[in-house]
Amino acid sequence: MDPQQLRTFVTVARLASFSEAARELGYTQSAVSQQIAALEADLGTALLLRRPVGPTGAGQRLLEHAAPLLVRLEAARADVARLAGAPNTRLVLGATALAVGAALGRALGEVRRAYPRVEPVVRVLAQDVLPAQVATGEVDLALVDGLAAPSDPLPLPDVGPLRTVAVAERPVAVALPVGHPLAGRAGLALADLSAARWLDAPDLTPPAARLRAAAGVDGFRPATRYQGTDLHGLLALVAAGHGLTLLPEPVLAAAPGVGYAPIAAPRLVHRIELVHGSLPEGPAALLARLLESSRG
Questions:
Q1: For 224, how many CA atoms within 13 A lie in the half-sphere containing its CB?
Q2: Fewer CB within 10 Å: C terminus or N terminus of the chain?
Q3: What is the pTM assigned to this prediction?
Q4: What is the pLDDT of residues 228-258, one digit of tens each?
Q5: For residue range 38-52, what is the model confidence (pLDDT) as tens digits?
Q6: Which residues contact 119 (CB under 8 A, 6 or more apart)?
Q7: Does the CA dihedral 29-30-31-34 come out positive or negative?
Q8: What ranges do the domains of the chain cover?
Q9: Which H or E run includes 102?
C-alpha cells in the first residue's frame, strides 16, 4: 500500500471532493483520481463513492486504519531525522493547560541560561493531539495531564516509540461554590456526586465518561459545556453555581468564591506525564532531564 495514495485517499474522504483534495495537496485533479484508482486496484475494491463523494463500507474501514498508519509513518520519519540531523537548538513544548506550572517555569529558566539564544515556545493543546504531535516532530516534547489511580499511567494513544514519565501526582477535589453544604468536608465519595449538576470542560477536566468509569455508577450529566482552557472562567462558573467540576486540589486552595472537598473514594490523582521521543543533546533534552528530576 503506497503511503502517498493512502494520504490522498484520506484527504479526499475528509473534504468529500476530488477537486478540493487536489487543491490542498498541490496536485491536479487527474493525479488525485489516478492515485485513488491505483489504491482501489491494489486493494481490489472500491473505496470511494463518486457522486456524492464519500467512503464505501470498505473505504470507511480503511479510514479507521489510515490515521494511525500515517501518524506512524510521520513519526518514523521524524525520529530518524532527529537522530541523523544536526544538533537541534529549537525548543517547542506542547502542554495541556493544567500541566503548565511552577516546575516547568523553573526548568525553562535553567534551559535559557544554558542556551541563551533559544526562545522556547509553549503550545497549549488538547491531550488527545499531543502524543501524535510529539511523534511527528511538531513539538519536541509534551506535558499531558489527566485523572488516574495513584501510580497508574495515563491512557495515551499508541503513536510510536515514545517515552512517558510521571513528573507530578496531586490530590483531586471537587470544586463547589463557597457556602455549598459539602464545601470543606474532609472527603467525599465520587459516586455520591453522580446526580449533581456538572460542568463539561473537555480541555481542562475529566469528561463525564471518565467520571462514570472511575465512580462505577451512571450519572455526571453535564449542565453547562465550557469550551476553552481559561481556568479562571471555569472557576467563575463554579462560584456562580452553574455546576461542579473535578480539579487538582492545589488549584482550588486560593480560588475566590470557590470551595472544595477532596475526593476520598475511589483513590484518584491528577497525574502529569512528560512525553517525548528520542532527543539529541540540546535544549529539549535538557528540559526533559530537568522535568524528570523535578518530581518530589
A1: 16
A2: C
A3: 0.76
A4: 999 999 999 999 999 999 999 999 988 999 9
A5: 999 999 999 999 889
A6: 91
A7: positive
A8: 3-84, 168-270
A9: helix 102-114
